[in-house]
Amino acid sequence: MLDDLRNAPRNQIVLLHACAHNPTGIDPTNEQWQQIADVIQERGHFPFFDCAYQGFATGDVDNDAYAIRLFVSRGMETLVAESFAKNMGLYGERTGCLHAVTASADTIPAVSSQLNRLSRATISTASAYGAKIAGTVLQDKELYNEWVEDMGEMSRRIKKMRELLRDKLVAMKTPGSWEHVAKQIGMFSFTGLSTKQVQVLRNQYHLYMTDDGRISVAGLNSNNIDYVAKAIDQVVRSVN
Hints:
The protein has helices at 2-7, 30-43, 66-73, 108-122, 128-139, 141-171, 179-183, 195-205, 225-238, and strands spanning 13-17, 46-51, 78-83, 96-101, 188-190, 214-216. It is α/β, with parallel strands linked by helices. Helix 5 packs across helix 6 and helix 6 packs across helix 9 (225-238). The longest helix is centred in the middle third of the chain and has 31 residues, at 141-171.
């Protein structure tokens, strides 16, 4: 990744996942983020953050904002596309916001004007219902604290499901290594299953995931984890 950033022409827009990378579930360490920031700054690239899972990576909204705050602390201009669809349970509302960080306050009117023009031309007026819910939660201290606690609980539950799926596959001696399932973070897991295996899981076992083997770990629970693990075990053994 660092080589690609160095070899890219100068002044490129670089799209980065702030946390809980989708689909791999693998985030850079803080030290690696610093290296990424070094190269982007050296090459004059513009960082554009996709922040769709804040709070679901580590269970801490501040920890999950590390990369964004690192770039901003270095004086870098950036855009942050933030979604509240997952971490506030507003998936059907597609609620979010776009943060623009500029090097100078003098730039803000021009940026605001351009964003207003783009918004008007593409979506006209955004839906207000989800935005009002998100705004209420973020501005009320009691609701905000409850929201943060809920995300921590959800993050721990997802981590537990990862570990449980790994343990069950290991216990059945399912061919291959499954440690990556537990090491990844966030809502999704890149299982390593092939397209053929995914199709069998879909058609015979009614387990649904993308063709590249990405599964939603948030969809696992104590009632279906055994079924999912056994299905994966059988498919891995029978489908090459």
